[in-house]
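In this supplementary section we document a worked example of the pipeline. Step one takes a protein sequence of length 284 as its only input; no multiple sequence alignment statistics are reported here. Step two produces a three-dimensional model, which step three serialises into structure tokens for compact storage. The input and output of this example are shown verbatim.
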Amino acid sequence: MQSKLMFLHALSPLHAGTGQGVGAIDLPIAREKGTEIPIVPASSLKGVLRDACAALHPDGDTCTHIFGPDTDNAPDHAGAIVLTDLRLVALPVRSLAGVFAWVSSPFLLQRLSRDAQLAGQSNLPVKPSLADEKKAWVSNNSALKLGNTIILEDMKLDAQTQADTWADWLAPQVFPDDATWQVDFKARFCIVHDDVMSYLLQVGTEVTARIRLEDDKKTVAKGALWYEEALPAESILAGLVAAQPNGKAQPADVFQIIGQIAGHPLQVGGNATVGRGLCRLSIA
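The serialised model returned by step three reads:
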């Protein structure tokens, strides 16, 4: 089985939900059970990619060979594509300088590095040895620094210029065809302690109150107030896309189709009609 690393960049708030919530948020986003890291489930992503394939290849056979037949003909053969959940790599967080920071942590980057190794990449940056909750790593040309500190949300952290290796590795993979955004990413990239990241994953998502109006009165319908959670625009997630021969398609066919899809905007998750889920896919 051959695999490649893929990145998803949210151009608008992204709601990949789990249905009804049990807490204050009625419609929460999907998260890993053990880590609470936000994800886009592979099942959701597969549907998005299949629809995009169908738009590019309306003959139908190409999509069937890559993604597998429809439910009625499922026993015929499996699809040639294999997808993992997309996990958060960098969360956009409000910064007093530089507008916002793309914030990651040693644990998030360690898991990304493991995926990159599975995809055949080598010479990867080492896991950041950041042991102090009051410190943050930034790049040499960081736009986030105020003197020797950075301020993220309500937290003041001491800035250390040790994130260049990771920023230099990530930027061309997330923005492979845009040198301007590569520079911006490096200037806003930041690594914080895992405990600080856990806090940001709880308070750094976007929660919106939604209502439904009565058609005739234009007042809020009874019981029609709910809260939705979304990953903020500019969030970056990553996972693996793998391919295996299935008698209908070869790995090269799979990666060719995914490469074609990566050149077009995608709508991922729910609430498309209110602007949620506009994303860009890149293959490393």
